[in-house]
Amino acid sequence: MPLILLTPKDMEKSDVNITQTQQIVMGFISPIIDEIVDRVSERVLSITAKKEPKFYTRKEAAEILHVTLPTLARITKDGLLISKRVVESCMKRMLLMRQ
């Protein structure tokens, strides 16, 4: 294969052709990327909008976090974890709903 030497002028033309090609490709691909982003965003929003908060007992929360109950109490007291008191009858309903 013969060696081809490009002059600076030829290189400039080559750069222009590459830039034009990139613009053409991006012009074609951009709407496709936008459509994909829109669809993924809609799915994520629909999933997160339907998600209800999950409630755990103190024991379950301690097991999930791999801490003891006194440590869980300190974490809650320090404000690192939000806790809510739930009436026992509501708790039974919640446990049934979660299963």
Describe this structure in words.
With 99 residues, the protein is an all-alpha fold. The chain is 72% helix and 0% strand. The protein contains 4 helices and no strands. It is elongated. The protein starts with 7 loop residues before the first helix and ends with a helix. The model has no long low-confidence stretch (mean pLDDT 78).
Return the string of H and E elements: HHHH
> What is the SS-derived class?
mainly alpha
Shape: elongated
The protein's oligomeric status is single chain
Number of H- or I-type helical stretches: 4
Low-pLDDT segments, ≥5 res: none
Q: Roughly how much helix do the residues carry, as a percent range?
A: over 70%
Tell me the β content.
Answer: under 5%
Radius of gyration: 30 Å
Say how many strands there are: 0
Would you tell me the overall average pLDDT?
78
- Sheet of most strands: none
Question: Distance N terminus to C terminus?
Answer: 72 Å
